């Protein structure tokens, strides 16, 4: 885990870098809660689990350098990137990311619309530089559902997820109603689902 990353062998990563596609690594502590189904009739009533992550100052700088064309590998990576934006928003509003406090399930939905991803991540990087932090450790409970406005990644590489999962909710938030076409195609062509299955490259719908 993250399972989308299993498609990327050292050889594949080496070829990507040789062709001019830089990469940045984040450390993700994926919890079993990732795979819990949404049992509530309303997704808003689903208690999101907590996951821990780490990012280095150099990785954050690399993401900022290519902020207009970021591809997240895996839904957990996507949640991490958006959680970094939330931490940066804390810096802008409160002067500190307060990284010991987990990013709340709905916290980033209250993030001012005027604050874009670049501004937020720049604030977080500035905080790390001022505090001389080479690595930032934090945790998140962020839940991404349709209607969410993404601030960092413009594309997503991910496997095919099970129904009634928070992972499928994230996908539908990212590409809109097109998720049905994607999954209909996968089912019609016998794609393999879940952790050791096939992968997909998805592009963010306009306006999200």
Q: What would you note in describing this structure?
A:
The protein is of the alpha+beta class and 208 residues long. The protein has six helices and six strands, in the order H-E-E-H-E-H-H-E-E-H-H-E. A three-stranded antiparallel β-sheet has the order 1-2-4. Strands 3-5-6 form a three-stranded mixed β-sheet. Helix 2 (57-65) packs antiparallel against helix 4 (117-130) and helix 3 (75-94) packs across helix 4.
Give unreliable regions as ranges: none
SSE ordering: HEEHEHHEEHHE
What gyration radius follows from the Cα positions, in whole Å? 17 Å
Bulk shape: globular
Number of strands: 6
Biggest β-sheet strands, sense, barrel? 3 strands, antiparallel
Please tell me the overall pLDDT. 91
Q: Which percent range fits the helix content?
A: 25-40%
Give the class from helix and strand content and strand pairing. Answer: alpha+beta
Strand proportion, as a percent range, falls in 5-15%
Strand order of the largest sheet: 1-2-4
Question: For the terminal residues, how far apart are their CA atoms?
Answer: 27 Å
So how many helices? 6
Topology:
Elements: H1 10-18, E1 27-29, E2 51-56, H2 57-65, E3 71-73, H3 75-94, H4 117-130, E4 135-140, E5 155-159, H5 166-175, H6 178-188, E6 199-203
Parallel strand pairs: 3-5
Antiparallel strand pairs: 1-2, 2-4, 5-6
What is the compact description of this entry?
The protein has 208 residues and is α+β, with helices and mostly antiparallel strands.
